[in-house]
Amino acid sequence: MNKADTLIVHTTVVSMNDERHIITDAAVAIQNGLIAAVGKTADVEQEWSADDVLDGRRFVVTPGLINTHVHATGEPLTRGFVPDDTPFIENVFEWLTPIHTYYSEEDEHISAQLAALEMLKSGTTTFLEAGTVRFIDPVVEALGEIGIRARVGPWAWDLVQDYDVLKMDTDTAIATLEDSMNRHASAYDGRIQAWPIIIGHTCCSDELWKAAKELSIQHGTGLSFHMSPAAMDPEGFLEKFGQRPMVHLAELGVLGPNVILTHAVHVDDEEIALLASTGTSVSHCPTTALKVSYGVTQIGKFPEMAAAGVNVAIGTDGNNASNYHDLMRATYLVAGLFKDARRDATIFPAETAFAMATRNGARGLQEADQLGSIEVGKQADLVLHDTDRPEWRPLHNVANQLVWSADGRGVHTVFVGGRRVVENYRLTTLDEFDLLERAQKAGEGIRRRSGLPDRAKWPTI
To answer: What are the backbone angles phi and psi of residue 349, rounded to the nearest 5°?
Structure first.
């Protein structure tokens, strides 16, 4: 007999392998943080034993979800404070960006853990930060402590000089990226890794674009940035370069298979062809697109991207844009938006949407050989969904239940690299109640220091 560290038996496994097998009365053996075996319980138990055996009869086991765009700092401590009726320019430049300037190092530590807490408890085991971290050291420490996987990056832009503490010239922006990548190349056994993540939009010079791409190649990482959520970006590129953003970035050599860019709502057919031909991935943030009124249902071309072969993954964005980090809720929106917008029920069926939240996310993060499915040799990042809940019963079609019925509130247990980080609905690595209390106090402090007005419409007495 082989000895596993943990054995989950008599469960239902959503493998997300190439054949998309769903295995009933299944078992998963975990050894040294990896999936050592997966198959029918009777077959696995013939070869594997463990002191830690988990009866999985009440669970559906899926791969850990992969959130490809999260603002882990800046917004979690001011969740919901920003009005939900501000147009894009006001939202970003009068509210969201200034709020970052009032965060201390301690605030960013708390903020990162708060974001990670929400993700872990709703089934996300890996995320890509938006490159809006001011103090990367406490953020890396915070994420390492809580047990999530993350790709992070410091704030980097060089064409916006309106916020004193966020100002930087091109040399400083490049040096900041390089320093973070050198010092955090593979922290916490590789769970946390720095990437060259730049703000994007119209906020970066050609020199910074090219330097960030070169750093990603030198360090063997991915590259990420925001682009074209609203008309501002294509209009700005057309005015300055006479080219739309994807055309210009392709000419600079920025696009490619190690790139995952976020939003891409305002793109045309030529840009989609460039994304497909270069192997560039896109992180679709559906809730932000709706809440900040990007026009995604009117002009968004995500079905065309997928049809062209673009790898489309899913992100939740910031806590004043989507206001949540439950990727299952975002996956539900991805499955539904274009069914209605195009009046075509065949667009993004549940099986495709869930693949975007798992396999496509892994591919976008350069981790397709390690994450995104439950297969032997991959990381044991597993989510146990509790089916002893009304939204799961009766259970007929697992994919439909996952996307259309369930959400992150039914996540019972979560493994990251074979380690239980959530068990029986509670975080195991930190005192989550203490974290929530500290987050409340820190958020109130940021609001006071910012001096931004309280625009809540219901009077508080």
So the answer is: -60, 165
81: which residues sit within 8 A by CB, 6+ positions away? 99, 320, 443, 447, 452, 454
**428 touches 143 (CB < 8 A):** no
Per residue in 260-306, pLDDT (tens digit) is 999 999 999 999 999 999 999 999 999 999 999 999 999 999 999 99
**Among candidates 450, 445, 448, 454, which has minimal Cα distance to 107?**
445
* Burial environment of residue 363 by CB neighbours within 10 A (0 to 12, 13 to 18, 19 or more): buried
Q: Which residue has the tokens 């992100």?
A: 315
> What residues pair up with 260 in beta bridges, in sequence order?
224, 281
Q: Cα–Cα distance between 363 and 260 in angstroms, integer?
A: 9
Collect all residues with Cβ–Cβ distance below 8 Å to 456 and sequence separation of at least 6: none
Contacts of 180 (CB under 8 A, 6+ apart): 136, 152, 153, 154, 194
Q: Which of 153, 191, 173 shows the shortest CA–CA distance to 69?
A: 153
For residue 34, which of 2, 56, 71 has the smallest C-alpha distance?
A: 2
pTM of the model: 0.98
3-state secondary structure 262-305: EECCCCCHHHHHHHHHHCCEEEECHHHHHHCCCCHHHHCCHHHH
User: Which pair of tokens denotes residue 426?
Assistant: 């509670």
DSSP strand pairing (59-63 vs 382-386): antiparallel
H helices of 78-155, where?
88-90, 97-100, 105-121, 136-146
73 touches 134 (CB < 8 A): yes
Write out residues in the chain with pLDDT < 70, as ranges: none
Q: What is the pLDDT of residue 89?
A: 87
| pLDDT for the residue 87 | 86
Q: What is the largest CA-CA distance in the chain?
A: 68
Cα(62)–Cα(47) distance, integer angstroms? 22
pLDDT of residue 326: 98
Cβ atoms < 10 Å from Cβ of 259: 23
Q: What is the model's pLDDT at position 88?
A: 85
Of 360, 358, 332, 336, nearest to 347 by C-alpha is: 336
In 162-258, alpha helices (H): 170-183, 206-219, 232-241, 245-252
C-alpha to C-alpha distance for 229 and 321, rounded to whole angstroms: 12
Instruction: Say what the pLDDT of residue 266 is.
Output: 98
